Amino acid sequence: ETGVTQTPRHLVMGMTNKKSLKCEQHLGHNAMYWYKQSAKKPLELMFVYSLEERVENNSVPSRFSPECPNSSHLFLHLHTLQPEDSALYLCASSQDRRNTIYFGEGSWLTVV
Amino acid sequence: GEDVEQSLFLSVREGDSSVINCTYTDSSSTYLYWYKQEPGAGLQLLTYIFSNMDMKQDQRLTVLLNKKDKHLSLRIADTQTGDSAIYFCAETQLNTGGFKTIFGAGTRLFVKA
């Protein structure tokens, strides 16, 4: 139990579907992150939220849309994804950008 | 520069020591970390070291930091099959954009029984 909970753990979706990944942190942190981990590629930082404001967006396609309604919850809305978007999506949180990042268990996404 | 580099694979026999190495390029690092990722799971924080320290020991884990050479290592004593995983080195930097944590590509540790 890391204090960062992701749901669902596994998701299979078609290219025309709309789905969402959810992340909740119980650590009282102020920063939350989405990372993408693909086979044989380094960890890719997608989005960073600090105090519910998006502070970093690393050239992620608009078919990925993050939402941070409060400092404990982070969503990743998925729409018209491509098969190459299949990956492990990791949510993480930290007290602030200076401090240790704690990861959730990840959501395995398969786009068919 | 922002790079954090690690070798991709390491294979050791059970009971031996494992040493996983990492180099980084940015001298503004504050904290350096080692994370462990087991199959199908997220990254689990193993240990960290503040940039003004040279060494940190935690049970079977020893972290060595050579700030002059920008080299970080993780030594696992008496390596067990349960230590088989991917180990990520990470560095938190302070630059003009603020704080940022950069991850290496991960070293896959194979432990042979």
Task: Give a written overview of the molecule.
- The complex is a heterodimer of chains A (112) and B (113).
- By secondary structure, chain A is an all-beta fold.
- Chain A is built from no helices and eleven strands.
- In chain A, the strands form two sheets. In chain A, strands 2, 4, 5, 6, 9, 10 and 11 form a seven-stranded mixed sheet that branches. Chain A has a four-stranded antiparallel sheet with strand order 1-3-8-7, with no helix packed on it.
- In chain A, β5 and β6 form a beta hairpin.
- Chain B is an all-beta fold and 113 residues long.
- Chain B is built from no helices and eleven strands.
- In chain B, strands 2, 4, 5, 9, 10 and 11 form a six-stranded mixed sheet that branches. In chain B, strands 1-3-8-7-6 form a five-stranded antiparallel sheet, with no helix packed on it.
- Chain B is globular and about 45 Å long.
- Chain B starts with a strand and ends with a strand.
- Chains A and B meet through β10 of A and β4, β5, β9 and β10 of B.
What is the CA–CA distance across the termini of chain A? Answer: 31 Å
Oligomer: heterodimer
Per DSSP E runs of 2 or more residues, the count of β-strands of chain A stands at 11
Low-confidence stretches of chain A: none
General form of chain A: globular
Major sheet details of chain B: 6 strands, mixed
Helix and strand sequence of chain B? EEEEEEEEEEE
Structural class of chain B, by secondary structure, is: mainly beta
Quantity of strands of chain B, as a count: 11
List keywords for this structure.
heterodimer; A: 112 residues; 7-stranded mixed sheet; 4-stranded antiparallel sheet; globular; B: 113 residues; mainly beta; 6-stranded mixed sheet; 11 strands
Short description:
The complex is a heterodimer of chains A (112) and B (113). Chain A has 112 residues and is an all-beta fold.
